[in-house]
Each structure stands twice: as C-alpha cells, then as structure tokens.
Amino acid sequence: MAGLCPPSSVQPLRWNDASGRIEMIDQRVLPGRFELLAFDCASAVASAIRSMVVRGAPAIGCAAAYGIALEARRLQHLDRAGFAAGMSTAFELLAQSRPTAVNLFWALQRMQAALAGAQPQAPSAIAGLLLQQAHEMLAADVRANRAIGAHGAALLPQTAQVLTHCNAGALATAGYGTALGVIRSAVADGKRISVLADETRPFLQGARLTVWELQQDHIPVTLITDNMAGYMMQQGSVDAVIVGADRVAANGDFANKIGTYMVAVLARRHGIAFYVAAPLSTIDRKLATGASIPIEERDGAEVRGFGELRWAPADVAVRNPAFDVTPAELVTALITENGVLRSPSTAGIAALFDEPD
Amino acid sequence: MAGLCPPSSVQPLRWNDASGRIEMIDQRVLPGRFELLAFDCASAVASAIRSMVVRGAPAIGCAAAYGIALEARRLQHLDRAGFAAGMSTAFELLAQSRPTAVNLFWALQRMQAALAGAQPQAPSAIAGLLLQQAHEMLAADVRANRAIGAHGAALLPQTAQVLTHCNAGALATAGYGTALGVIRSAVADGKRISVLADETRPFLQGARLTVWELQQDHIPVTLITDNMAGYMMQQGSVDAVIVGADRVAANGDFANKIGTYMVAVLARRHGIAFYVAAPLSTIDRKLATGASIPIEERDGAEVRGFGELRWAPADVAVRNPAFDVTPAELVTALITENGVLRSPSTAGIAALFDEPD
Q1: A299 vs B6, which has greater pLDDT?
Q2: B47 at the A interface (CB within 8 A)?
Q3: Which of A228, A261, A315 is facing B319, going by the closest CB pair?
Q4: I need a labelling partner for A233 at 20 to 30 A (CA). Which of A314, A345, B189, B351 fits?
Q5: How crowded is residue B84: how many other Cβ atoms within 10 Å of its Cβ?
Q6: Per-residue b/e over B10-20, b at no fewer than 16 CB within 10 Å?
Q7: Residue A217: pLDDT over 60
Q8: Residue A2 has pLDDT above 70, yes or no
C-alpha cells in the first residue's frame, strides 16, 4: 500500500485497499500456521483483540483505529444521527476489548478527536478521513519504533545476549517492534546480538511469536521456559534485559505481560541492565503510579493447558492475571522515540513529552 | 503389604509381593490417566527414572533401591562371580539415570553396603536381604516425611496460603511428601492452609501432580503459571513458600527444580518466609557449596512443547536445565526429620546429623 513500505519482514496488520478490510496475522496459530484473517467492522476487530488474534499494546492501538475506520465505512450510508449512534457504540465496544494496554484508549481518543473535527462533513467524507487517520497512526507507530530502535541500540554492548519476555516485536506493533526493534537496530548497526526468549506462559508469545519473528530476520535466538531466567542470569548468560510495556504510569511504573516483574527483580539482584522500550502513546500520564493500572484477569482455561490440550484437572481453581506491574525503581532506562530516560521519574517522563523527536 | 500402611492417599511406588515386581504410578500421564507400571529389573527401573515415570529425589532413591533388589532376585540363580558382575552393572546403570538428586547415590550406597555386608551368603539369600533393605528404606522415608511434616507444621500460621514449586509431595517420595508433607501435617493440626501451585514448566509437575495429589486429600489448591509468583506476592497472597530439594550442600545451598531460585529471590524481596523441606538423605556433606552440584540438562523437545504437542519452531535452539541452585542465604529454614534449622550454615547442618530424632 502507498506510504507503507514493509518495516521488517513481519507486519501483523495491513490494510487491503481492494477488499476494504484490515487483514491481521492470526497470532493464536503461529508459528504452526501463517493465516491472515480479514475484518470489516468494529465488532469483529474488538473480538479479534479480545481473543488475541492481534496482541501487543501498539498493535492493539492500530487495530482499534482501523476498527473505528471500518465501522465508519460500514455506516457511511446512514443519516447523521444513525451514524453518530453507531460510531458511539463502536467506540464503546472497542474500549471494552482489553483493559490494561493504554494504547487502545489513546488510539480511540485520537479517532474520537478526528471524528469530532470532521463533524460538519457528511458520514462518507468522515469515513474517508478516519481511514486516513488510521493509516497515519500505523505509519507513525513504525516511525516511533525505528526511533526507539536507534536510541536503544546505542545502549547495547558490541556483543551481547539479551533476554526478553513475551513478544514486543514487529508482531506486537505496526511493524519493527519496540524491544525487538532495539535488537533489530543493534544488529543493523553491526553488533553481535543474540536473544534469550522466555516462552511466556500461558499464551506462549515468546516460544511462538518472538522465536518465529527473530528467525524470519535470522537473528540468533534461544528459547527457555520462564522459570529459567534466574538460572541463566546466575550463569552469566544475560547481558541485558529489554521488554515492552502495555501501560507506563506518570512515575515510570509500568504494566507488561505477567512475569515481567519477576525478570526485573532478578535483573536487579544480578546487576543486569533492565530496559523498557515503549512509544510515548504507552505512557498514561493520568495515572500517578502503577498501583492504579487495571490488570486483566483472563479465562482459567489458558492456565490449565494450551490450545486444545488440557493437562491440569478441569476443576482446579486458577488465577490468570495477564499482566503485572514493575516499579520504576527496577527500570534502568525507558527507551522512547523521544530518547532514553535513565532511572525514570515523574519529572523525567514529563520532560520526554516536551522534547521534539 | 506388611509394615507399609498407606501414608497418604497417594503412593508412587509399592512392592507387589505376588508378582515380585515394583509397581510405580506413571507420573508422565497423570492426572489424565492413572496407570501403574510394573518393573522387574534394574535396567527397567533406570529407564523409568530417566524418563520420569518416577521423579522426586526421595522417590528416585527408593526406586533405585528396589532396582537393585530386583536385579539381585533376577540374578540369584547365577554363581557368585556372575552375580557380582551383574550387580556391579546394575549399580552403574542406576547411578547414571539422573545426576542431580543425591538421594539416588545415597540409596545406592546403602544398597552397596548391604550387599557387601551380606557377601558371604549365597546370591538367593543376598537377594532376600536386599529386598528387605529396600522395604526398610521406603518405610524410613515415610517416617522421615512425617517427622518433617510435624516439625514444619509448627512454622505455619493458623491461616496461610503457601506457595510451592514443582511437586515435593507424596508422589515425589515414598509417600506423604516433604513440602506437601508439611502442609498435610498443618492441615491435620487444624490449620486453614491453602496452596498456590506453580505449574512448573516444562514437565508441569505442579499443574499435573501437585494439584492432583492435593485434590485427593481435599486440600484447597490454586494453580498459577510460574511467572505469576511475583504478582501473587505483590498482591499479598503468599504467606510462606515451601519447596523440596534434590541435593543440599554442606553449607545449605540447595538444588531443586528449575525456577526454585527465582521464587526464593522474590520471597526475599517481599519478606516472605522461604522454607526447604528435605530428609537428611538429601544432604550431600561432601559438597562444600552448591556451586559443584551437577545440573542435569534435558532434551530440548521438553521446552518446545509438552507431550506430543509442539508449539515452538522445531529448529529453535533451547536450553533445558532441569534444576537450579539457591544459595543458603535465601533460605529462612531447612526442615528435616531431625528438626528445623533456621538460617542454614555449615555448622548448623553438621549439628543436624548429631541430633537424634
């Protein structure tokens, strides 16, 4: 599509101009199957977000933007009142799809502002403007990831094994990736980087997505179970940790995939640098600290097995928080498109928003 | 069988006098299937240990003892020289079955001493003595677990949620369990104990075995993935941690299932008591510290999926250390059949061996 050259070998979502649909890689079935699913309305996109066809805070934001744009196209033949009512329902539906990642709400606010700004125009014209806005947000996310990559790559030594948790890669964004974007940039700079990927139960984003995505780019990767990270640090096999974020509070506390907090505690014990790579759209300045970030609790079936396979007794009680919150004091630096913030604090984060790229 | 009343509802191995075989619960297929497998020679028992039909340091020790006893019965019609050569091969085979748990070597030494002591006698008489010795070791392990349980139960508050990693229960011992023995004893004492079970990738001993075993005894249990332990501690949902051990060094450092170290680091950060429950047979006083405990590295296929299911790319590099070592400084107390040792040290551990039960 015009203006959207492939940012890496992997693009989780792309607009199909011929069909007028957004196509997404079904991340539930990777790497066993590579399947593109097409979506044509807000409700289908909301359900794709809920069921994790698409996941990763920035990718969810882009998907939600397209969900709004698609709904506007679908409803463009209604009168103004019908259009407005339908759009309002679409915003609500998407806002309820996943609670923790703030990029979703950020993207919906941007789309809401675009809708409000276009209000005097006819629904069909508004639909065109909203689609343009979604395209721009997707392109901006890739630009932000590339800037994060460039800033972050400078932090890594010439040779390093980097541990990452979950998938904060091209698949979690509009392309290129945040944590994996830093690794891609370091590799592009000629650094010898290998990746240690936590498998990341229960959804196995590390084992399935991070491994697959790095293999597409021929970046060396070794898979471990989540509970091996401490052992690898004890053995001196981890030179740095880089993870993404689903929501960063004003003081630098951040929510990310469940298990991130454990990795941060271990990195601190072993004196290993712990970096968070995230675009400014992930920062929620309305939340003073991480304590008020809502933590999604998902279906217990995910913990009792994987996919169709169940290995635990069907009737066992389960907890399944999808995210945890890591305090800012455990973060060596926050890597954003506006630069690197060491020892994140409320003042430091506020300053990030004042600086141009 | 005479002298071996069921110590809990679950017994991972039991002698079948009618068939002259040792029967073991196949722990690879629990809880989906409850299947007893029968073994009649050392080589079959060694392969059961290697493939984790039976697992858990004390249970492995008992299985090895029966492996020797079975081999003696099988070879009892040979002449002395043939018998001695066959027994020597059996000891070697069993010693190679798993490297980390020291109870295996401890049990083999006991059997070797029994064999040496019985030497003037005919092979058939020796075979009878070795079987008696295996029975005694199994009964002694249950007695030790009950003593561990009694000592450990006193450490728990009246109401507590206890986190455990892997399975140090009846299934990991001759019956009753070490870590879960403490929980059983506390429950028997009228304490309100619930258990938080780490699923324990890659073999899922927590999700499959700990959950199943506690359900048999109607002890409340909640299952989490390994990477949720930190979150649960942050939420104040963990009052104490109790784990077993595969080998304890002279200074109190100990090897246990991979991931134990991470739980210990987190418990320290959160000021939560971290207890290790293990019989004296698990203590290897020949090793000054944990640094020289051999760590078994198992097949990568275990990490790429589970059972027949594979979710990671088949060609991805994998690490699969089966154990890690936790330094003594992270251990609140070591619970043995000879009592509770707070802040384990070389002197304290030496003293444990001087005290009668």
Answers
A1: A299
A2: no
A3: A228
A4: A345
A5: 16
A6: bbbbbbeeeee
A7: yes
A8: no
